[in-house]
Design brief:
alpha/beta; TIM Barrel; 2 domains; 11 helices; 36% helix; 13% strand; globular; DUF72 domain-containing protein
């Protein structure tokens, strides 16, 4: 039984020398991160399709059971809105192929303007995708959360292709006014939507955003501990990503979330011990 946990990135300046060894060449940073967490959000691919050789280095730094949830490029999801994007989609799928089984899901994050009237487009897009990969969809249109009919239609569209609905829980962030520059920035950029905890497949994916203060973040994820423990007992294989506005302690928080779930499900496999933050030497 395994719970995969991770962060929004595998390299952050505030981690270097404090949590991860420093200096580390770029080709070794993911390897160091993977001793802390066993999953990562593939956010960089949203902005540009990486070269195949770059993706080969990602695969070389991780074990086959490490999980990437890889985001489709914005040219496909936001600019083309899932229509007429065959060429950028082909290039993307070819680029990520070296990840092999590490690609746990391809993540279709849709803009807030993509609403219930667009579900036919989403269904057509999912139907054309190769069955080589599993898929997960994140929506941000409020109707999918506030209107039961729209919610049912989306769930039906996803179920037809065994695709998961990815919730982004930002409730804790918006519970009280921001107290730092990072929190103020997150307030302007992150979606303000109700919490959703229903899994559609055996592979639920959760994105949770807390606060810069550790105690606020931990307090906010309490409802998720029983939910994730329940998924595990049902035989599901969840992946949970822990965010904070500045992400300074996201690595340690992801491991703490895993530990707190394991306290409820003792048969859960533990995470390995992380790499020491001192650079390795010969003597």
């Amino acid at each position: 039984m395994r719970l995969h946990v991770g962060c929004a990135m595998w390299s952050l300046a505030s981690w270097q020398g404090r949590l991860l060894p420093h200096p580390l060449p770029p080709a070794e940073r993911l390897r160091a991160y993977a001793t802390w967490c066993n999953a990562v959000e593939g956010n960089t691919t949203f902005y540009a399709t990486p070269s195949r050789s770059t993706v080969e280095t990602w695969a070389a730094q991780t074990d086959p059971d490490f999980r990437f949830i890889v985001k489709l490029p914005k040219t496909i999801t936001h600019e083309h809105r899932l229509k007429g994007a065959d060429e950028p989609l082909r290039a993307f799928l070819e680029a990520i192929e070296p990840l092999g089984p590490r690609t746990h899901a391809l993540w279709v994050q849709l803009p807030a303007s993509f609403g219930p009237s667009d579900l036919g487009v989403l269904g057509g897009f999912l139907q054309r995708l190769p069955r080589t990969w599993k898929y997960a969809v994140e929506v941000r249109h409020r109707a999918f959360f506030s209107d039961e009919r729209s919610q049912r239609l989306l769930e039906r569209a996803l179920a037809a292709f065994d695709a998961e609905w990815v919730p982004f829980d930002t409730v804790t962030l918006f519970q009280s006014p921001p107290t730092s520059d990072a929190e103020r920035d997150a307030w302007t950029k992150k979606p303000r939507l109700p919490r959703r905890s229903r899994a559609l497949t055996g592979r639920p994916i959760l994105r949770y955003l807390g606060r810069d203060a550790t105690e606020r973040t931990v307090e906010g994820w309490q409802p998720w501990l029983d939910t994730v423990a329940g998924w595990l007992r049902e035989g599901r294989t969840p992946t949970v990503f822990i965010h904070t506005p500045d992400n300074a302690d996201a690595l340690t928080l992801a491991r703490r979330f895993h530990d707190e779930v394991r306290a409820r499900v003792p048969e859960l496999d533990p995470l390995p011990e992380p790499m020491p933050n001192e650079p390795l030497t010969l003597f």
